[in-house]
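Appendix B. Worked example

We walk through a single record from start to finish. Start with the input: the chain for Copper chaperone, Mycolicibacterium rhodesiae, length 116.
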Amino acid sequence: MDLKLTRSLPPAAPATARCSCCSTQPQTASIPITPSKDNAMSTTTTASYPVTGMTCAHCVGAVTKELTALPGVTSVNIELVSGGASTVTVTSDTPIGNDEVAAALDEAGDYRLATD
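Next comes the structure step. The output line below is what the pipeline stores for this chain.
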């Protein structure tokens, strides 16, 4: 007797439907990174940056990926504000400069540090 497992998936939303990641409600995402033993005694630095251009969970993922690739970054937390300035909080073992953050945002896509 062969046993075949299947899983039912909900029907796909029409292309015009807005998913929850594209809503105007603030959303957060956080990816902690476990520091190595070499960094266990380091002092951490936390800085928040206003970032424009993010509209959905894909944007959050792209920005998080690029920022976590920076040397010393231990966590990234993003409060998504679709259509506005999202708050990106970066925790690192050493201070991260605005130029480094701006370069990572540019590498991730069309995301920019907001200016007043």
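Two observations about the output. The chain has two helices and five strands. The two ends are 68 Å apart (CA to CA).
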